[in-house]
Specification:
mainly alpha
Amino acid sequence: MKLSAFFIPIALSLGALPSANAGIIGYGICQTGCNVVAVACYAAAGYTFGTVTAGLGTPAVILGCNAALGKCSAACAIVALTPTP
């Protein structure tokens, strides 16, 4: 774990550092990229994104696509919405 990952949020909460973020437009662009990749992942597996329901019998490849989409979306939130000094 980087020390900055621990100390920067504390410093920001104390108002010690000025901050900026990429904003909602950057976040939307990033999320669009994630969704384009998820659609391509589903298509490569022979499915249509948005039509497969979760539950027993969900193909492992779809679960992998969903996990990748979740990681990508989380990365967008960290990069685009987290204030940086």
